[in-house]
Design brief:
alpha/beta, 15 helices, binds 3-[(4S)-2,5-dioxoimidazolidin-4-yl]propanoic acid, binds fe (iii) ion
């Protein structure tokens, strides 16, 4: 006699398992959960020996794996709406940054902010993502840019993971920009990160990965390579903001270090695409930054597809280039701006997003996987990238437990 905690019945199921049927849709109509894991899914009529502490009919609603936001900068103080107005008036992102605005203005505010202020602001944004069907969120540091402030940000990320009921995957992004006190001394700053910050982060397990910004306005390839060698020595995987504003050889660099993901990629070269394919690195596309920066160079989506590079999508939630607090909106933009199919958009925010975080226990609905499940008020899974705005989430199950959205 199967003894389940929760049995969801009368459901339409998009497992997102790769295979013949689109969206991994099968004739299964029920899913059972035990100890936070999927214990069984199939046709209820064919299962006689069943007992569940709770049986819940979903009245024919669609369920999918809960969404995963695999790239965010959602811990920061203040916002940059005023800069957005200046950009609408024609000023460039680089000019504003050169005048001490941009990332460094958020750094100033975030350094000054207390842990509580950072926590409260981040929790608000995290719950917005959850209300849109998200159960796992990657959260980067990168607005501290000194040892104590970066540790402060990672501490907030860890606390969010402990208390929010969602999975938070912290990433060290100290190599986000050169801090003012190291202006023109980027190499020395990278040394500080490698010799002082990284060992402390690794020892105290404050981050699951190390990221960097390889770009003309941030760090060059040799500096990032030094950081990635140090990260690898500390047993940490790497991710890279690569080829966002120009071809810096970021895709090749990420592939060289077997990065979990290379993110942005608008200016990635064909050699870079091939390198990502051989390394098994995931391409994370970020349409929110693309549209907010009025970029016109699209990432090489067809080349990535042809090369077999897994495609993920994320919000890149940050105050400067992507104040986007909705993964379904990222899907809607990914379809319209980057030409992803609706099925690719959902795979990109479930299965492939899990891969971009090195997680193999979620992202599809199949037995023994973590029971992170989104229940939707939709006619078909394609609706999730068709509609823009509004909320179609009915309920969210995280680790087998109902997640309160109130
Ligand atoms: N690329 C981006 O678009 C963001 N970070 C990065 O590496 C910008 C972050 C900001 O402007 O605050
Ligand atoms: Fe980013």
């Amino acid at each position: 006699m199967a003894d389940w905690d929760l049995l969801l019945t009368d459901a339409r199921i998009a497992t997102m398992q790769p295979g013949d049927s689109a969206y991994g849709i099968s004739d299964a109509d029920a899913l059972a959960i035990t100890d936070g894991r999927i214990a069984w899914l199939g046709k209820l009529a064919e299962r006689r020996d069943r007992h569940a502490d709770e049986t819940r009919s979903l009245d024919g609603r669609w369920i999918t794996p809960a969404l995963i936001d695999c790239h965010t900068h959602l811990i920061f103080a203040g916002d940059r709406a005023h800069e957005f107005e200046r950009r609408l008036a024609g000023e460039s992102y680089a000019n504003i940054a050169a005048e001490g605005g941009g990332i460094l203005s958020t750094v100033t505010n975030t350094r000054k902010a207390g842990i509580e202020t950072l926590y409260d602001g981040a929790l608000r944004r995290l719950r917005m993502l959850a209300a849109d069907g998200v159960a796992t969120v990657e959260v980067k540091s990168g607005y501290g840019l000194d040892v104590s402030s970066e540790l402060k940000m990672l501490g907030v990320a860890r606390n969010l993971g402990i208390s929010s009921g969602l999975t938070v995957k912290p990433t060290l992004l100290a190599a986000h920009a050169v801090p003012p006190e190291y202006a023109d001394r980027a190499d020395s700053y990278i040394d500080l990160v490698c010799n002082e910050l990284l060992p402390e982060v690794a020892d105290s397990k404050l981050a699951d990965a190390v990221d960097g910004y390889c770009e003309s306005i941030a760090f060059n390839a040799p500096q990032i390579a030094k950081l990635f060698r140090a990260a690898t020595e500390h047993g940490l995987r790497v991710k890279l903001h690569a080829d966002q504003l120009s071809d810096c050889g970021g895709a090749e660099l990420a592939a060289h270090f077997k990065a979990l993901s290379a993110d942005h990629l608008e200016y990635a070269s064909s050699a870079g695409v091939q390198a990502l394919a051989s390394a098994g690195t995931v391409a994370v596309l970020l349409p929110g930054a693309y549209v907010t920066l009025n970029e016109t160079q699209r990432p090489p989506v067809q080349e990535l597809r042809d090369a077999g590079v897994p495609l993920a999508l994320a919000t890149d939630l940050n105050p400067g280039t992507s104040p986007l607090c909705s993964v379904t909106m990222a899907m809607a933009l990914g379809a319209r701006l980057f030409g992803l199919t609706s099925e690719e958009c959902l795979a990109a925010t479930t299965r492939e997003a899990a891969r971009a975080l090195g997680l193999d226990d979620r992202g599809t609905l199949e037995t023994s996987k973590r029971a992170d499940i989104a229940v939707w008020n939709i006619e078909h899974p394609r609706d999730l990238s068709y509609w823009m705005g509004g909320n179609r989430l009915h309920s969210l199950v995280v680790g087998g437990l109902d997640f309160s959205l109130d």
